[in-house]
Amino acid sequence: MLEPIVVKLGGAIFEDETALKNLCQALAQVQQRPLALVHGGGVIVESLLARLGLISEKIDGLRVTPHTQIDFIAGALAGTANKKLTAAILTQGRAAVGLCLGDGGLCQVTQMDAKLGAVGSCHPGDPDLLTCLLEQHYLPVISSIGIGSDGQLYNVNADQAALAIGQMLQGPMVLLSDVPGVLDAQGKLINELSTSQAQQLISQGVINGGMAVKVKAALDAAKTLQQPVILAGWKDAQALSRLLSGEPFGTRIIA
User: How far is CA 32 from the centre of its chain?
Assistant: First the structure.
């Protein structure tokens, strides 16, 4: 079996039905290559919390998750977002299975920081379920909801979840979001980014918030996997197809 590509998908795509359809068509076009998809769903979470009259905030790009809200957030991510994405892939003719980080013990999750509430740190767990699905040509669609050894649900940052899955499968990693890659101070795409360059741009505030979390996760992944990690956008469907086939696209992150 070829090395699986681990694709992390940002939740903003759920606001663009055309982009979601194009992405799933691109995924269906590379059926010969094993893929594992890890996704977020912040826009769905925020919409649900707003309808419930609940406040949502972030610290350093991580969503604060009070224990009183984890049931709602788990429903939005492991339920609505996961099943919408799985359904969109199925309609394009590729077999997909919706999962969360806790299914089959995929990842070991522990509470990250008490001030963040039910937010989890994620580490590789048992790969057997994923290996079985990939060998049978299924596309695993994995939400970033984890289950701790205490049986509690945890909200895991999707970039960090993708890193854990990438460590487990030891394949190439692609982080997709609503921007074409990492941008410089003038808003231009950076084709390749090293650790020292990234640290400088983060310290200058050019890379900040959610993108800083993405870049740090990509650098960790590149160092751990000992291969470059791609940060790219999902808006260009043709380029996305080329990317999944191994052609250059977005920002290449090197450790």
Answer: 22
Q: Which residues belong to the annotated binding site for substrate?
A: 41-42, 63, 155
Catalytic one among 10, 103, 159, 216?
A: 159
Tell me whether residue 214 is one of the annotated catalytic residues: yes
Choose, from 42, 125, 166, 233, the residue flagged as catalytic. Answer: 42
pLDDT-based confidence at residue 172 (cuts at 50, 70, 90): confident
In terms of C-beta density within 10 A (0-12 exposed, 13-18 middle, 19 or more buried), how is residue 124 classed?
Answer: middle
In the annotation, is 250 catalytic?
Answer: no
Residues 6+ apart with CB under 8 A from 200: none
- Distance (Å, rounded) from C-alpha 58 to C-alpha 62? 5
> What domains can you pick out in the chain, each with its CATH number?
5-253 (3.40.1160.10)
| 186, pLDDT greater than 70 | yes
**Residues 6+ away with beta carbon under 8 Å from 248:** 191
More confident residue, 27 or 125: 125
**d(C-alpha 180, C-alpha 178), whole Å:** 7
- The whole-number pLDDT of residue 179 equals 82
Residue 216 a catalytic site member: no
Specify whether the CB–CB gap between 249 and 239 falls below 8 A: yes
Query: Bigger pLDDT: 212 or 119?
Result: 119
Query: Which of 10, 146, 214, 250 is the catalytic position?
Result: 214
pTM: 0.89
**Bridge partners (DSSP) listed for residue 63:** 58
Closest CA to 7 of 34, 42, 35, 41: 35
